[in-house]
Write a structure and sequence with these properties.
The complex is a heterodimer of chains A (299) and B (187). By secondary structure, chain A is mainly beta. Chain A contains 5 helices and 22 strands. In chain A, a hairpin with a 2-residue loop joins β20 and β21. Chain B has a 5-stranded parallel beta sheet, with helices on one face. The chains are: A mainly beta (299), B alpha/beta (187). β16 of chain A pairs antiparallel with β6 of chain B.
Chain lengths: 299, 187
């Protein structure tokens, strides 16, 4: 076989070389039943998928590069699905250089088997979209959907583009679709988790349900949809402001709550302590309440 | 038709139980007997085998495994903490060739906050009426409960059906209630 001059051979060897290089960025986090993968973020920091990480005091970690290690939890943010573990001893790692891929580009997802050996998957970027908010309110800088299949054990590992640029951490979206938590989101969240163990976020203490605004109020509010309070946490910020279950929120600080993300953008980490104005419909009248945002209690 | 369709009745099955923990046997036997089945020691001739814990389960086409590990090869897998109702239902389903798994939050994955088309959102009153339908109330009952006319109740139900894309009260409940809980969020 012609070496080097055959296109498929060249491609195949290049992919194998990349998998070998990815070794120093991958680890297996062992559980009782199977394991989960993680990204070696820094010499002593491992990043993984919060939704699949069991709660423990300590974790056994097997590194693709060889050694076994012990790690302790350093912080979790379920809203962005990022968990951070601290390794007992520092290792040599490749610095990760974040990059946003283009739609259609080839990418590789790496994981680790139970013993730590590296696993590799090749696929492409289905779509690169705008910023989005998770169900729990976390802001993810970009929507990165990938045409890759992963086993459960491979979730949480790094995704690299073909130039070695770090695309992000792999995780399962709805229906086991594979998405990446972008490098830029990790860069924003991981340092905060290392410092505080959690992400400070604004909190209203309220459960909301999108509803159609009843006909008579559509003209007055200029909106056809709003958010109905289905429950209000006792002594929470909304309760203190006088919000009652059944109230329909139509705007926050003049911004229509027609969209869920409008309200989430008012609750970023610097929102704590800020006063906001809630416009709502209650028993046949539109009224305004003033609320002071508090920090979300630790879970 | 000469006869009314037969009511679906639960089959009376022969169930074999294998467990790695002897103290679990009487518990599982109780669940099986309460569900109206017989217990057999003859695994080969059992209709369904319950394999509990880390026991290596026998080669059988209808195995209900109780334990967290889903090897995806076993016919049905339930957590060890499964309720008697879940175990009973899994035995029945597995016996007729179905594969049973628990619907878990993890399968839902990490997803985006829902954005629903405004014209498909329910009004607060429609949500209340949907709740009343789930309770099995008649139009008259709903009218009384919310102190509105039956005519208005019909109007709300028609609107509900249209938004949910359904044709019956049962369908409205089956489709509507999960949809509502998916859209609810806490902040």
């Amino acid at each position: 076989m012609g070496e080097g001059n055959d296109l498929l051979m060249t491609l195949s060897q290049a992919l194998a070389a990349r998998a070998d290089a990815a070794k120093s960025s991958v680890a297996a986090i062992r559980g009782r039943h199977g394991s989960l993968s993680g990204v070696l973020w820094r010499s002593d920091v491992l990043v993984t998928s919060a939704q699949s990480l069991p709660k423990r005091e300590r974790y056994d970690v097997a590194l693709a590069a060889g050694q076994d290690q012990v790690a302790t939890p350093a912080g979790v943010d379920v809203t962005t699905n990022i968990a951070v573990l601290k390794l007992a001893t520092a290792l040599q790692v490749h610095p990760l250089v974040g990059r946003v891929p283009n739609t259609g580009e080839l990418v590789s997802a790496y994981g680790a088997g139970h013993a730590g050996s590296v696993t590799a998957r090749l696929g492409s970027v289905i779509a690169v979209g705008d910023e989005w908010h998770s169900r729990t309110g976390g802001r993810i800088d970009r929507r990165l959907s990938l045409d890759i299949r992963l086993s459960r054990a491979e979730e949480g590992g790094p995704i690299f583009d073909m130039s070695g640029g770090f695309v992000g951490m792999s995780t399962f979206g709805p229906y086991r679709s594979v998405i990446a938590i972008p490098a830029s989101t990790l860069e924003r969240v991981v340092p905060m988790l290392l410092q505080h163990g959690h992400i400070a976020r604004g909190w209203l203490g309220i459960a909301l349900q999108p509803v159609a605004i009843p006909e008579p109020f559509r003209n007055e509010t200029g909106q056809s949809a709003g958010l109905m309070a289905t429950s209000v946490k006792a002594d929470g910020p909304a309760a203190k402001a006088g919000v009652l279950a059944g109230d329909i929120l139509v705007s926050v600080d003049g911004k229509a709550t027609r969209r869920f993300r409008n309200i989430l953008s008012s609750l970023d980490s610097d929102s704590v302590g800020r006063h906001i104005e809630l416009r709502l419909i209650r028993s046949g009248a539109v009224q305004t309440l003033s609320l002071t945002i508090e920090a979300r209690p630790k879970e | 038709m000469s006869s009314a369709p037969a009511m679906a009745t639960w089959a009376h099955l022969r169930v074999a139980i294998v467990s790695s923990d002897p103290s679990r046997l009487p518990v599982l036997a109780g669940i099986v007997l309460d569900a109206g089945h017989d217990i057999t020691k003859d695994v080969d001739n059992a209709d369904v085998v319950i394999a509990d814990g880390s026991v290596r389960h026998p080669d059988h086409p209808a195995v209900v495994k109780l334990g967290e590990v889903d090897d995806r090869e076993t016919t049905s897998v339930l957590p060890q903490s499964a309720t008697p109702a879940q175990i009973g239902a899994a035995i029945q389903a597995t016996a007729v060739g179905l594969s049973v798994r628990v619907r878990s939050a993890k399968i839902e994955g990490f997803g985006a906050a829902p954005e629903v088309k405004a014209e498909l959102l329910l009004t607060p009153r429609e949500i209340e009426v949907l709740g009343a339908l789930a309770e099995g109330l008649s139009n008259k009952g709903i009218a009384r409960k919310f102190d509105i006319s039956e005519h208005t109740v019909k109007f709300h139900i028609e609107s509900l059906f249209r938004k949910l894309g359904v044709r019956s009260r049962a369908q409205a409940v089956i489709r509507g209630l999960p949809l509502l809980s998916q859209m609810r969020f806490e902040i």
